[in-house]
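During the reporting period the student researcher (J.K.) took over the structure-prediction task from the postdoctoral fellow and processed the backlog of single-chain submissions. One of the processed entries is reproduced below for the supervisory committee.
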Amino acid sequence: MKAKKHRIRFILLILLVLYIIIALLPRPQSIHMENPFRADSSMPMLVAHGGGNGEFPDNTLEAFYNAYSVDPRAMMETDVNLTKDGVLILSHDTTLDRKTNVTGPICEWNYSDLIAEKVDFGYDNPTVDETLNGELKRYKDGNGLEKTPLDVTYPEGVLPRDETVFLATTLEDLLLAFPQNLISVEIKQTGELGQKALQETLRLLKEYDAFDRVVIGSFYPEIHDTLQQLQKDGQLPAELLFSANESHVTKFFILQLLKLDVFFDDKICILQIPTEEYGIPLDLKSLVKAAHKHNIAVQYWTINEEEEMRHIIEIGADGITTDYPHLLKEVYENTP
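J.K. obtained the following structure tokens:
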């Protein structure tokens, strides 16, 4: 019996030593180059959520110009959907019902018609499952004020596209307007349509030489699978940047919690995560430090309160995604 106990203790000791060794091993680098989404100062990047939809209608070029006026180095976060005529427009929803004065799936509208009819993306309508459920309601900012394109502070030499209407904005518009800024693009459509949207995204990134400043993400695993396969086959550049999806985040969180993230080698460059999920806090300094050991950046969304902004600064995150760029700038300016 004593011999058996000794053997068990010896085995446990060996396992403990192995665990300690594994916990101390260098972490594999998720990307083998300088990660552009890692903060290069003591303050996280200002990430404009849809351009900052607490200040201007989200996913409009005007909202992004507003964010740029706050911080010319702001990172632009957006969502894209493919129209019937094959143009990628910026929209969080796959329908036009919530954010415009018309209705219907984006894939059933031509971009040319959206422009010709001057469809206005300056609305914030009630919807159920992305379908209009009530009267049209004009967008109002966080202070309850209606906005027009004339309210934006534009860069020198840039004029409003329209005096009253927030016109449809394309991904190409965004790339052209902000040739130096980092951009996060989330593909919102799925299935065959999502794959077409992905291919058009990749075409634009190639045309504008933007692979090193645009990160691609999606809630749909098949988008990531396609990207990784294309890169593996040599059809995409090595510097193509991926954002983590839910499965990546779950895997990384569990492994780093167990100090076993030496086994995490998914090729992602950024974790774009909420402060908590399913009641589990994710806004942890330990998680941020663990990600940095893998050369992975960490950004939190959507942070709209001063106290929470200060907390994200304190834990050393790389970016704060907010609807209120001016508020975040004020917090930065008042933080020692």
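The committee noted the following: The mean pLDDT is 94.
J.K. will present the remaining backlog at the next meeting.
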